[in-house]
């Protein structure tokens, strides 16, 4: 758990809170923020972020830029900019982290993402965490959820 500028970044619950408000974040955006906070002592290179967060998936810099933008939106209300951009290099979290900050979960222990392309060209990716048995599979599309 990390505490900074009135926020609590709870890695175990996968939540960003400010006071009693839970800030909605897409999983990739949450992972981006956790990675930056965990490595706040240095500028994290763009390629490192792509390698760690997308683990071999074909993505462009636009995916990373989108994650940065959404993370900054989730951090709205902070006393200043918490994510610095270092042109052509990467990003750095510059907020003062207080409290019982613990290292982020080891992403290498996470299962590799699974990818599929539907007949109509939609690309889906997911990870199964914990028990793989489930009553339903849910595919998330921005703004929609379809039980399968």
Structure description:
The protein is an alpha+beta fold and 148 residues long. It folds into two domains: 2-104, Orthogonal Bundle (Arc Repressor Mutant, subunit A), CATH 1.10.10; 108-147, no CATH class. The chain has three helices and twelve strands; from the N terminus they run ββββαβααβββββββ. The chain has helices at 27-38, 46-54, 61-74; strands at 2-4, 7-10, 15-18, 21-23, 44-45, 83-86, 90-93, 97-98, 114-117, 123-126, 138-141, 144-147. The strands form four sheets. Strands 4-3-2-1-8 form a five-stranded antiparallel sheet, covered by helices on one side. A three-stranded antiparallel sheet has the order 5-7-6. The protein has a two-stranded antiparallel ribbon with strand order 9-10. Strand 6 and strand 7 (90-93) form a beta hairpin. The chain is globular and about 45 Å long.
| Total number of strands | 12
CATH class of the largest domain: Mainly Alpha
Q: At the third CATH level, what is the topology name of the largest domain?
A: Arc Repressor Mutant, subunit A
User: How large a portion of the residues is in β-strands, by DSSP E?
Assistant: 25-35%
Question: Keywords, please?
Answer:
148 residues; alpha+beta; Arc Repressor Mutant, subunit A; five-stranded antiparallel β-sheet; three-stranded antiparallel β-sheet; 24% helix; disordered C terminus
Layout of helices and strands:
Blueprint: E1 2-4, E2 7-10, E3 15-18, E4 21-23, H1 27-38, E5 44-45, H2 46-54, H3 61-74, E6 83-86, E7 90-93, E8 97-98, E9 114-117, E10 123-126, E11 138-141, E12 144-147
């Amino acid at each position: 758990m990390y505490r900074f500028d009135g926020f609590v970044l709870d890695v175990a619950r996968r939540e960003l809170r400010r006071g009693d408000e839970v800030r909605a974040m897409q999983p990739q955006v949450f992972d981006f923020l956790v990675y930056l906070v965990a490595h706040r002592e240095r500028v994290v290179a763009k390629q490192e972020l792509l390698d760690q967060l997308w683990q071999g998936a074909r993505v462009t810099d636009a995916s990373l830029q989108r994650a940065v933008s959404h993370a900054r939106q989730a951090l709205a209300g902070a006393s200043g900019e918490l994510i610095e951009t270092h042109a052509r290099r990467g990003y750095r979290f510059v907020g003062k982290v207080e409290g019982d900050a613990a290292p982020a979960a080891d992403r290498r222990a996470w299962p590799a993402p699974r990818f599929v392309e539907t007949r109509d060209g939609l690309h889906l990716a997911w990870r199964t965490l914990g028990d793989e048995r489930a009553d339903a599979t849910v595919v998330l599309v921005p703004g929609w959820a379809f039980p399968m």
